Amino acid sequence: MKFSIVVAITPEELEQHAIEAAHQAGAAGITLLNGRGIGAKTKKTFFGMTFEGSQSVLLMVVAKSLAEPVLNAMHNLLVTDGDSRGLAFSLPIEHLTGIDLSQLEQFEQRLVQNKDTNS
């Protein structure tokens, strides 16, 4: 079975919505990291201090066939009216160890379900 990692960087206030959307799209486990970003646009200042909003980084290892549905879910959440409030991308995983066997079973079940619905 081939796997991909999906990385989603969202504003902290959208973290829970992103988790729910990823789960609904097929992601089983998610690792959360806190982050700060430096964008191309100048950040707002308040009394000379630059405000940078907190960001959440979601890392999801999914079956390769689930990467696109999870990315689509992140796109639907993060992009509104052409304005993006975050970033999501996937990368192939060459080697993987330590994955929970119950997650592997969930991946296999979803693949069978997807294959049945696409037939």
Mean pLDDT: 84
Percent range of helical residues: 25-40%
Strand order of the largest sheet: 2-5-1-8
Please report the number of helical segments: 3
Beta strands, count: 8
User: Structural class given helices, strands, pairing?
Assistant: alpha+beta
Q: What do we call the CATH topology?
A: Alpha-Beta Plaits
Number of separate domains: 1
Q: What is the CA-based Rg, rounded?
A: 16 Å
End-to-end span in angstroms? 20 Å
Task: Assign an overall shape.
Answer: elongated
CATH architecture: 2-Layer Sandwich
Organism: Rheinheimera lutimaris
GO molecular function, one term: enzyme regulator activity
Protein name: Transcriptional regulator
InterPro entries: N-reg_PII, N-reg_PII-like_a/b, N-reg_PII/ATP_PRibTrfase_C
Structure description:
InterPro entries: N-reg_PII, N-reg_PII-like_a/b, N-reg_PII/ATP_PRibTrfase_C. This is Transcriptional regulator. One of its GO terms (molecular function) is enzyme regulator activity. It comes from Rheinheimera lutimaris. The chain has about 120 residues and is α+β, with helices and mostly antiparallel strands. The protein has one domain (about 5-40, about 50-115): Alpha-Beta Plaits, CATH 3.30.70.120. It is about 35% helix and about 35% strand. The chain has 3 helices and 8 strands. Strands 2-5-1-8 form a 4-stranded antiparallel β-sheet, with helices on one face. Strands 3-4 form a two-stranded antiparallel sheet. β6 (about 80) and β7 (about 85) form a beta hairpin. α1 runs antiparallel to α2 (about 65-80). The longest helix has 18 residues, at about 100-119. The protein is elongated. The two termini are about 20 Å apart. The model has no long low-confidence stretch (mean pLDDT about 85).
